[in-house]
Amino acid sequence: ETGADVVSVQWEGRLKVPTDEVYTIHVETDGHVRLFIDGVLHIDGWDRPGGKSRAEVDLVSTTYYQFHLEYRHVTGNAFIKVEYEAAGVLRQVIPPSVLYYVEDIDGSPYDVQVYTGPTDAASSDAFGMGLVKGVAGDVMNFFLMPRDVNRNHRKGATILVYEDGGGDDLVVEASVAASTSGGVGVRDVPGAFTWLDNDGLYNVTYTPTISGTYNLNVQIDGAHIKGSPFP
């Protein structure tokens, strides 16, 4: 309990329960309250003052859960009580023995560099006029933005070489699907590509000599990128 006044409090620490169970957490207050466990909002009484709230949360005894409680009170005596219960655990005010606070160890926080993963074909994007139209005999081009499986844009000088010494195996081929012009030339046109390091893009070019409709296949490591083959 606190005295009679305007009160705004935030408690944050770790919760480590004694047994693996579904716990019911009870909050009783005459103010406004929000309870987050591991960043998930379980009790939301921020827009209504006072009353009792409860939430059921599946917890395991080997985990230190982030426990974040926000409390706001405007007038009168300020009061809040937080309890828990589970099978084999009597309803009680959450005891100090299961609550922990977190301090940085010496040298923490550390600066950690997280790099993108290998290029994932299905997550990578292509754009440019060379995917849409062009003129027979002219060089057509488009750009390919490589992304990893989490859609992180892969940029920088390390894009072409992985830790195992390999790299992106990029294959581009435009094949004539339909033509009535009688043009002559190669019907399966290979593409060429260069890496634009500053932009983090592949510049892809190909030169069709037969007018008509093409299927443009763009593959990385044997898999089609998003949208491929392009009609």
From TrEMBL:
<keyword id="KW-0677">Repeat</keyword>
<dbReference type="GO" id="GO:0051015">
    <property type="term" value="F:actin filament binding"/>
</dbReference>
<dbReference type="Pfam" id="PF00630">
    <property type="entry name" value="Filamin"/>
</dbReference>
<dbReference type="InterPro" id="IPR001298">
    <property type="entry name" value="Filamin/ABP280_rpt"/>
</dbReference>
<dbReference type="GO" id="GO:0030036">
    <property type="term" value="P:actin cytoskeleton organization"/>
</dbReference>
<dbReference type="InterPro" id="IPR014756">
    <property type="entry name" value="Ig_E-set"/>
</dbReference>
<dbReference type="InterPro" id="IPR037524">
    <property type="entry name" value="PA14/GLEYA"/>
</dbReference>
<dbReference type="InterPro" id="IPR017868">
    <property type="entry name" value="Filamin/ABP280_repeat-like"/>
</dbReference>
<dbReference type="InterPro" id="IPR011658">
    <property type="entry name" value="PA14_dom"/>
</dbReference>
<feature type="domain" description="PA14">
    <location>
        <begin position="1"/>
        <end position="98"/>
    </location>
</feature>
<dbReference type="InterPro" id="IPR044801">
    <property type="entry name" value="Filamin"/>
</dbReference>
<protein>
    <recommendedName>
        <fullName>PA14 domain-containing protein</fullName>
    </recommendedName>
</protein>
<dbReference type="Pfam" id="PF07691">
    <property type="entry name" value="PA14"/>
</dbReference>
<dbReference type="InterPro" id="IPR013783">
    <property type="entry name" value="Ig-like_fold"/>
</dbReference>
<feature type="repeat" description="Filamin">
    <location>
        <begin position="116"/>
        <end position="231"/>
    </location>
</feature>
